[in-house]
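Anyone up for a design puzzle?
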């Protein structure tokens, strides 16, 4: 028994020495504790999407918010549908450290009651306002389609 204890101490000491001799890098997700990592308190933001870019909206536009610093979406409020006449169905609620200047969506054209399916690509949109912000779809920039990322 003493032999195992001494061996364990020796291995633990060697591992501790090796750890101090080699720089350690820790990689972990900070998403769950941005407030703790930055010291900035989280706040809730609500967004409205509007605009009537008929060439892009077509029969309707489904938008899925893509989490990105300084915000992440509340699970039940990251999908909205924009009708051809500019009516938004759904909620966009974000938790942010501070007011975002732009946010990104995955998008696809579909009717209001369409089931969730693969999206077409990324859409980057400027944010107007603060805690209750607005996004005008005609000011958004269409990014690459997902097939272009391969």
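Challenge accepted. My sequence:
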């Amino acid at each position: 028994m003493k032999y195992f204890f001494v061996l364990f101490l020796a291995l633990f000491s060697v591992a501790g020495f090796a750890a101090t001799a080699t720089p350690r890098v820790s990689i972990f997700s900070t998403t769950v504790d941005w407030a703790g990592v930055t010291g900035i308190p989280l706040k809730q933001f609500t967004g409205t999407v509007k605009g009537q870019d008929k060439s892009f909206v077509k029969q309707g536009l489904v938008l899925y918010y893509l989490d990105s610093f300084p915000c992440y979406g509340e699970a039940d409020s990251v999908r909205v549908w924009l009708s051809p006449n500019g009516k938004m169905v759904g909620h966009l609620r974000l938790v942010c450290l501070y007011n975002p200047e732009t946010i990104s969506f995955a998008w696809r054209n579909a009717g209001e009651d369409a089931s969730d399916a693969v999206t077409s690509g990324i859409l980057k949109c400027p944010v107007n306002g603060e805690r209750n912000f607005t996004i005008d779809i005609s000011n958004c920039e269409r990014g690459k389609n997902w097939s272009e990322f391969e």
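A detail worth pointing out: Confidence is low (pLDDT under 50) at residues 4-19.
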